[in-house]
Amino acid sequence: RERLIQSFQRPASVLFSDYKDKSSIRKILDFARTHATSADSLTGSRMMIVGMPNVGKSSLLNALRGVGVHKGKVAHTGAQPGVTRKIGTTVKIIEGEESGEGVYLMDTPGVFIPYVPDAEAMLKLALCGSVKDTIIAPTTLADYLLYHLNLYDASVYREYEVPTNDIVQLLQSTARKTGRLQKGGEPDLEASALWLIQRWRNGHLGRFVLDDVTEETLEAQRNANEKVAISVNQGRKMVKEMRKQKSREKHLNAL
Known about the structure:
Elements: H1 2-8, H2 22-39, E1 45-48, H3 57-69, E2 91-94, E3 103-106, H4 119-127, H5 138-152, H6 167-178, H7 189-201, H8 215-254
Parallel strand pairs: 1-3
Antiparallel strand pairs: 2-3
Helix pairs in contact: 2-3, 5-7, 6-7
């Protein structure tokens, strides 16, 4: 699957990494070092981390700094989007040599896509934590998660309930077994939903991606992105024409 994505993104270079895995962090550092050497800059190279909210940009920066120059964390991290609020100062991740000042990295706030193509795409983003958990009802997210858990392996939640398609049944059982109860002993479904979602995010309910990554689905996504780009460009042209028309009318009224 990784090789498929890499080939699909050519000629751009794609590296897959885990900030907890030093060997994968070294691959990024090697890539940055090669780029810096080819740039041959006396002031060093400047890099920027850009991506969706809550995908681990700050964690990656801390890991690159730790492995690259053996220094501690400088970027704050958290489980919810929006921890990084502004563009930070540059942080050295590779020491300089005689030919330059090394490589510096800049952390940035998450950048959300301007247009979400469909409801399922939004559910995926919310389930991964790219939007705040208050945007979409936790029980709705948990229901979507249950759908994927059943596709992956229904036994991953057997500790709480037998395989089921009923999210209420699963949440009620989870609430009773984890003590998430309201007054009178009623199951707290929302708290149980949030707890299950966080369990999955932490890797305790299986490790799998929400997208079906195949050549066909990647090609379909590319076509969909092209259509969105065309729609956005058409919208910009319409706005531009409207402004021109207003300017003409204003000019004529002034005569």
